[in-house]
């Protein structure tokens, strides 16, 4: 038996044009799982043929409609017939693009190419959206293979093409970002008091990760990742490359605005206390509370205790006392008493300084003690009473951000696969990845689609 699909075009005035698009033959009297319905290859070929027929009709109809001069309505002279290439989800198209000469009523010579003017972008938004979504979650080569398997695009899309399309989308999003400011907390106390009752508190965790550098191998560069966790509403993520992004505060501010966080709302910023994130969280909201992540404090103390256990004889005899002193430092910091903790660290360093000809393990321990002391000193203003926060059910660590670091950085930029990246490539791709994970990338494409729906300008048709 034979199945035929016809395309019926209503050209107006009760006139219809009918033509056969594709036909499929199936054996008579046979029913098997192999021949049931359309195969994937047949469906892809059918859609590709249908796409070509519809788009050719659209392009020729649009060109005929704009052949008349807008001033005198006389048809313009046909200069030549050309073709333009457009990539869609259903194949790569070669569309007819006739060009018309100037009308006699126009003084300035010009050539009109209506199809070229109507299609300044030669990739459909649906295809770019698929490429951006999939490429943010998987490698460029894997994305090209998936698109070729699922869509009738053949071998017209490769990893380089997808990367270029994805970078173009990311750069457009970056261009929409406002200017950077040193302070985004605005207004005064009187204005904040007159504002409506704010929503529940919001916790924002900020942490960092590292990606292998392609330009400076085997070095790594730092990537900052954050996650906003409100008590009500969806979570939001953000990320940027340290030293490459010129608008980190603006990026964080836009995240707060997108979640409707007002100036009189309580916000808790939690970070690891690194130099790259310490200044990021300042002056964002007047009611902000800045907290140093206790997890990083505990991990640093654990490393110091492990180094004390590895001291060689005869210094190893003092290892239990050093470990107990470090445990006291941990308890003091847990209760927010950083001054007493720093005093104990200083006493430990002074005691180790009394040793004559100390072994390398002792010198290493003293160096780490000095780094820990500087770390606590630089972040003393961010150390609260963790025990009290814990009793009231408030967050004391950025454990929820650790999963975000793995989700945003490790799973795509694949540290285990030894992949190498440029800071620009990571930064741009990360803007798409965070939007995909938050489920808001489609809203950007919808907004751009609405912007394109404005009437075309006749002046843009001059080729």
TrEMBL record:
NCBIfam families the UniProt entry points to: transpos_ISKra4 (NF033572)
Record-given protein name: ISKra4 family transposase
